Amino acid sequence: xxxxxxxxxxxxxxxxxxxxxxxxxxxxxxxxxxxxxxxxxxxxxxxxxxxxxxxxxxxxxxxxxxxxxxxxxxxxxxxxxxxxxxxxxxxxxxxxxxxxxxxxxxxxxxxxxxxxxxxxxxxxxxxxxxxxxxxxxxxxxxxxxxxxxxxxxxxxxxxxxxxxxxxxxxxxxxxxxxxxxxxxxxxxxxxxxxxxxxxxxxxxxxxxxxxxxxxxxxxxxxxxxxxxxxxxxxxxxxxxxxxxxxxxxxxxxxxxxxxxxxxxxxxxxxxxxxxxxxxxxxxxxxxxxxxxxxxxxxxxxxxxxxxxxxxxxxxxxxxxxxxxxxxxxxxxxxxxxxxxxxxxxxxxxxxxxxxxxxxxxxxxxxxxxxxxxxxxxxxxxxxxxxxxxxxxxxxxxxxxxxxxxxxxxxxxxxxxxxxxxxxxxxxxxxxx
Length: 432
Fold this sequence. Notes:
Blueprint (H helix, E strand, L loop, with lengths): L8 H11 L9 H5 L9 H17 L6 H14 L6 E3 L1 H12 L1 E4 L2 E6 L2 E7 L4 H5 L6 E5 L2 E2 L5 H8 L6 E7 L7 E6 L1 E4 L3 E7 L2 E6 L6 H12 L7 E5 L8 H9 L6 E7 L7 E3 L11 E5 L6 H11 L4 E4 L7 E9 L2 E11 L15 E2 L28 H7 L3 H5 L1 H21 L1
Parallel strand pairs: 11-12, 12-15, 15-16, 16-19
Antiparallel strand pairs: 1-18, 2-9, 3-4, 5-6, 5-7, 7-8, 10-11, 13-14, 13-18, 17-18
């Protein structure tokens, strides 16, 4: 049966009933056709949508129900906005709740779409993905036997999640390599502990934040207290590499631990409630300790907020490689029936007014990833310690000069520690 012209009141109301919630249909037709403050609804485009909808219903090779068509239309509508806005069906909405709670069955990677390809943003620490050697920027070509080309981001995530103990194969292509490689992983319960700390050397602390959860700010305060239990720190490395972000308030709390005043971040959007600013409080856990912040291409969103705030406030030296560049804010809007909408509503800005979106944070000191290799000698070198009867400086001093395994394996971390020591040398000379 042919459709009435879209300009016809009955036809327009029918088309709008497909596109708008039923509660809005009680409004007079003119209000629907031209919502206050917005452009009039594009009648020709609505007519074209209805015609496409009807032709799929009548002519597609397989019968398809209205609900599926409408959900697909919503997915398409959102996917064309930006990589982070999406429609959440029941499974996706439940998956988001699991991620928020910090526990789910999977391999432990954050993924996104770049140039249409499923790309690793970052592997999460101490997960099957990190232990298998997955790296930021790896392109995932296949999940088991399913090619990722054409899959939505949510479909790919659903394929990678599953019952703990089950096997999964990921075929990846790494930058600089010509041939793909296949990795075998075993899913496990992913419980994300967001903060770890240790002393690299006496007086020099290491604080690793793998992602920003609701309690990350409290955990950072506790970690700093543990690091300073035996005395004040002479320097601290804040490691935000491969940190995909997370809760905005947690990022503010972490930055506030190192700042005693000034702006941390602000957001700008179309709606009044999306325009926010966050400033540091005077109660600060570590206001004076020399600080180096490590970032890389896997540092995104909330991690970039912290790095940008500390950089703009000249509170620390940012070292590593350029960050990911995700500077957008997403709000989760429930739609009922355990479904939802994740919609980008604002952009982040650093205290200096820099937009993080698609720009990222450039390090003050660029240091690429690498491994420190100790040159093997020919055995003919003679040192004081090799001479018979040499004076022993003490086991503690020798141990202090030894290189820890973490520093041996992590060139960027070693350079951060060296920079902290150099800063202390310069400070001591000024005071002297």
